[in-house]
From TrEMBL, chains A, B:
PANTHER family: HISTIDINE--TRNA LIGASE, MITOCHONDRIAL, HISTIDYL-TRNA SYNTHETASE. InterPro entries: aa-tRNA-synth_II, aa-tRNA-synth_II/BPL/LPL, Anticodon-bd, Anticodon-bd_dom_sf, His-tRNA-ligase, HisRS-like_core, HisRS/HisZ, HisRS_anticodon. It comes from Monodon monoceros (Narwhal). Residues 36-392 form the Aminoacyl-transfer RNA synthetases class-II family profile domain. Keywords: Aminoacyl-tRNA synthetase, ATP-binding, Ligase, Nucleotide-binding, Protein biosynthesis. Belongs to the class-II aminoacyl-tRNA synthetase family. L-histidine binds at residues 106-108, 133, 149, 153, 302, 306-307. This is histidine--tRNA ligase.
């Protein structure tokens, strides 16, 4: 036999006796992997994901959101200059003629583009969809290059902090509902951060770079962040120290009040606006009964360019798995903020629509739930089949086909074995393995007598049912279980 | 005021008073469109799509399918040489370092790649997902460059035609269930087509080109197709005429029997295999009660390279809209076939897994259902909100927020107006417009007496309910409606 590498086109096809197309259409290389940083979801994973997404979407609907869907790719210029330092992670499509396109990087920018394009001034929408980022994949942390986001946003000119408070309420409802263990939502305001930089003496040209350094405080110590500011970003040491006094603070509403009294910060108009809004926000959060879940954290900066006001990020405080397990480091599981300037960037006249929203990092939540299920050895059904149509008899395919069509037509979820002469034991084992609750068994004797045996897989009890009553009896049993 | 074109970065940001980031991060161009050939789905369209997809997926689950999800892009080589003449329509990603990637063109090739990669020998799976093709968009016909496919496939070595018959049953169930009017499923077999070409004297090198011509018979007359074969593809006129005798035939199982008797075709081994399978298929379709929906159509060719046996395509026979309406030309709404050689192309040793499947062209079905709804002026709710929390009073935001949090926490879908002092009439109008069935009204008097007014939007009846009983009463009313 010749080596595979020497076989070409038709020869290979003939050898394997399967392909019919002419030489050009036959592929000889063996390709058998998905691309790096992406993954297939197995049936088990699809079931877990569906349960989590159902729960998330039902919360969004509970808060009156409408669904929206946008294309996977946008015009390249739509995504340009929205994501700051992370813009290099955008996937571009190849120029094959026509427009220059990029895969969407989040669901927020397409939403803003939709609002501007359709001149929508007010909308509460949710969107569940995939986004793509060319990140170095550290898959252990639940980070992929393709991942699912669940977004909820409120667009429109309203009285301050009411929609913002609802966004935080939604985050609490979802994180509680998914039983991921204790969590905390860090809150800050971009205007307060800018105010801090201003009163500490950061030159305006360095705001962005210094903000990026502050953003690292969840992973690095203040000492290391300070070093970066001074050594790498050329900030004067005393300015860095002043910043340090602020950004190491976190607390509840009392910290908001304390900052109002701060002799330097209280001189800054932007910071005062931010503090005023946070004070109001905490009032509403108290009415919602979630204030104790929220921490005013001056180190929270958020990476994206488009935020203009309140920002927030939810972190899990403990992993729900067994104590002896490695804790799964999942970082933040939900985040968001106010972006009042983004819609205007897509409007020819710059008309703005104020927006606030949140994004649930479901991919990380999938990892946690999957690990929890592994730990507890939970088994999940990957099909919903209710009835299996079996026979102990040879040459009974015709009877089985007629019977299963009746079940399908009655809306009953049913399967059979695609064999002319399957063994009864094989058929019953299949039901046990797949968790199928009922089996109908048809044989020569039953056919003569006009009955079918209905068997419960769990109890192994069998009863004879007349053919006419079978569908009704199955429906009765299923509605009872 | 300077012209927009003269404003740069920060200046523009300052002018519009919204953006906080340094100059580089500010975009001045007004971009406000999605890319050509794609579209956003509005909330109305999302609701319609969800209903259709729910119905399709529940049929797939009724037949015991497991869910599977694969990434939006695959390694470029995975898609190479699978789609024949249409390969030019594949979207490639830009080479930004790393692997060469392409957006998936269908859900079948990723499924085959998954089976080979995971050495899965047997699987019944469904997959609902977007695929991308660089087609000249003729949007009126419901053709887009991004569109949703719903696939069901059965992989594994089974007795002949049982899974194939189930695929046709599924197509019938879905098309009947969606009430799209009368439909017909054309069936043919690639081996019969090849047999016809062989016995008519087509040189093997021209099989592919002639097959493509035959594929056009649903849009072109035989005269024009014949002309293409002879003038453009260099086929001898008498050979074309012999082909014409065959491919203009269509009928039921009797045509299968007739072809068995055909003096030329009955000499061809491949054709005989195909005819034998079709005969068996029609037996099973009769048992399923759907034989009268199926037409053996020798002109059916299907574009894709990977089919090796039975192929099929469902077409609507009439549009369900009003008689005076323009009929919507939607072409085929579902299609599929057997592809026994595809998995082997991804397996290093060429091991094959026989497969058969179908794809529902839901995008076209969306168009039909949307048009039908327009015609009948059907209104659909885009939110599921059950209760609106209103007040006739000024400065009652705190009470409303406390109350709505109670409702949300009880799982009730509720909304309020994001205003400190909304007008009662505005609030009630909103409920009527949005189809929200219940309103709870809280005012000073009610607060004093410890009651809430519960109003039915339809009947405009109001009753006072004590605060403690409100959630229970709402739940009772909602469960009754």
């Amino acid at each position: 036999m010749p080596q595979l590498g020497l076989l070409h086109g038709r020869a290979w096809a003939v050898l394997f006796g399967q392909l019919r197309r002419p030489p050009g259409a036959v592929c000889i290389r063996a390709v058998h992997s998905h691309s790096q940083g992406t993954r297939d979801l197995s049936p088990q994973q699809v079931v877990v994901r569906e349960k989590i997404l159902d729960m998330v979407v039902s919360c969004f609907k509970r808060h009156g959101a409408k669904g929206l869907d946008t294309p996977a790719f946008e015009l390249k210029e739509t995504l340009t200059e929205k994501y700051g330092e992370d813009s290099g992670l955008i996937y571009d499509l190849k120029d094959q003629g026509g427009e220059l396109l990029s895969l969407r990087y989040d669901l927020t920018v397409p939403f803003a583009r939709y609002l501007a394009m359709n001149k929508v001034k007010k909308m509460k929408r949710y969107h569940v969809g995939k986004v793509w980022r060319r990140e170095s994949p550290t898959i252990a942390q639940g980070r992929y290059r393709e991942f699912c986001q669940c977004d909820f946003d409120i667009a429109g000119q309203f009285d301050p902090m009411i929609p913002d408070a609802e966004c935080l309420k939604i985050m609490c409802e979802i994180l509680s509902g998914l039983q991921l263990g204790d969590f905390l939502i860090k809150v800050n305001d971009r205007r307060i951060l800018d105010g801090i930089f201003a009163v500490c003496g950061v030159p305006e040209s360095k705001f962005h770079a210094i903000c990026s350094s502050v953003d690292k405080l969840d992973k690095m110590s203040w000492k290391d962040v300070r070093h970066e500011m001074v050594a790498k970003k050329g900030l004067a040491a005393e300015i860095a120290d002043r910043i340090g006094d602020y950004v190491q603070c976190h607390g509840g509403v009392s910290l908001v009040k304390q900052m109002f009294q701060d002799p330097r910060l209280s001189q800054n108009k932007q910071a005062l606006e931010g503090l005023g809004d946070l004070k109001l926000l905490f009032e509403y959060l108290t009415l919602f009964g979630i204030a104790e879940k929220i921490s005013f954290d001056l180190s929270l900066a958020r990476g994206l360019d488009y935020y203009t006001g309140v920002i927030y990020e939810a972190v899990l405080l403990q992993t729900p798995a067994h104590a002896e397990e490695e804790p799964l480091n999942v970082g933040s599981v939900a985040a968001g903020g106010r972006y009042d300037g983004l819609v205007g960037m897509f409007d020819p006249k710059g008309h703005n629509v104020p927006c606030v929203g949140l994004s649930i990092g479901v991919e990380r939540i999938f990892s946690i739930v999957e690990q929890r299920m592994k730990t507890f050895g939970e088994k999940i059904r990957t099909t919903e089949t209710q009835v299996f149509v079996a026979t102990p008899q040879k040459n009974f395919l015709q009877e089985r086909l007629k019977l299963i069509a009746e079940l399908w037509d009655a809306g009953i979820k049913a399967e059979l074995m695609y064999k002319n002469n399957p063994k009864l034991l094989t058929q019953l084992h299949y039901c046990e393995n797949m968790g199928i609750p009922l089996v109908v068994i048809i044989g020569e004797q039953e056919l003569k007598e006009g009955v079918i045996m209905l068997r419960s897989v769990a109890s192994r009890e069998e009863v004879a049912i007349t053919r006419e009553n079978l569908v009704a009896e199955i429906q009765k049993r299923l509605s009872e279980s």
